[in-house]
Amino acid sequence: MQKKLPFTHTQIEDIIKTYPTPFHIYDEKNMIENAQNLQKAFSWNKGFKEFFAVKANPNPYLIKLFSNIGFGTDCSSLAELEISNKVGVKGNGIMFTSNNTTAEEYKRARELNAIINLDDISHISYLEEHAGLPDIISFRYNPGNLKAGNDIIGNPEEAKYGLTKEQLFDAYKIVKEKGITRFGIHTMVASNELNNDYFIETAEIMFNLIVEIQKELDITFEFVNLGGGIGIPYHPEDTAIDINYISSGIEQKYSEIITNNGLQDIKIFLESGRYIAGPYGYLVTRVLHFKDTYRQYVGVDASMVHLMRPGMYGAYHHITVLGKENESATHTYDVTGSLCENNDKFAIQRQLPELQKGDLLAIHDTGAHGHSMGFNYNGKLRSAELLLRTDGSVSKIRRAETLDDYFSTVDFGGVTDFS
Ligand SMILES: *Cc1c(COP(=O)(O)O)cnc(C)c1O
Fold first, then answer.
1. Is 75 an active-site residue?
2. What's this model's pTM, rounded to 2 decimal places?
């Protein structure tokens, strides 16, 4: 897929007069259009809902935009629950899919009346003890060797998430005996998956499981949450998934398995993050230095604290040099940040047009798991986040951190008295 930009070089030069580099900038128009297309694709299913995975991009302005078009939130921590609450997403608009959860988190999830999706059978009694049982409950299924995972999430048997099939039957039996009457079920076994059929197969496994559990335990499921994990074409050679193909494949399985077994009205939920926000973010950074040793290094003013994926997973993020979009890639560079860590590289041995000091680079696909994975190592500060609005204007939706933010957790008065 050809990697395009939603802004011009001139537009960015203009934005930089107000907001210095580095920053993440999000493309509202295409992001919302894609989100609406997802809803349209699944409109055959009454009650379909996408719960945006907040961890992918916890910016409240974006969460608000998504909630305006009918998305809920998928949360797994106290802060993510609070973000939902602050932007007005409450009750069954929140899916709480956590793991290794604290009592405090369960309490808050219950107060907000979120749908609780348990990651382990032992958490039934933990939830009951610390926050009380809700009237609707869901469990996360880990299919083990029934399904192959991928690199990011790993082999399901080695993944820390979810209940085994055997435990799942026990878990629903236990909560039924405790008086819970409303049920959902969840799984998430892939991350950044680009194979359309993978999602149809997952739905098939879940639909069959629902039929089996309903028959054995005589309980009725209200929803099946197929998780997130829909991939995006980071690499120009990748093919984007086809949401309409996935949806109609799932619709067919639904009719074969759910409808034909006399079940009905099971809502399909998704909790995608990357697919919703990923392709619509760009990290804009400026070339500061060149270094010519065993390799040609280009130092930019962003670093791994602004985008961790290349350093953490060796992930590919496409780079466009603004104003040189049509020049041929004649040079080979390692594009680096300034951390004292050699994996602080946005690109390794990447073919790019010849660069000059001051050139602006747009690093693609940073809308999900970009700014949100940021950290402060080496005293580096998190960048601003900007929103390129549908009308072409730019809104600052998060300022850059300052040194005062960095030092705000330390009382320096105490240091001077410290002996
Ligand atoms: C990370 C995560 C998601 C979102 O994953 P994407 O790859 O961004 O779609 C959804 N659900 C759970 C439980 C997750 O941990």
1. no
2. 0.96
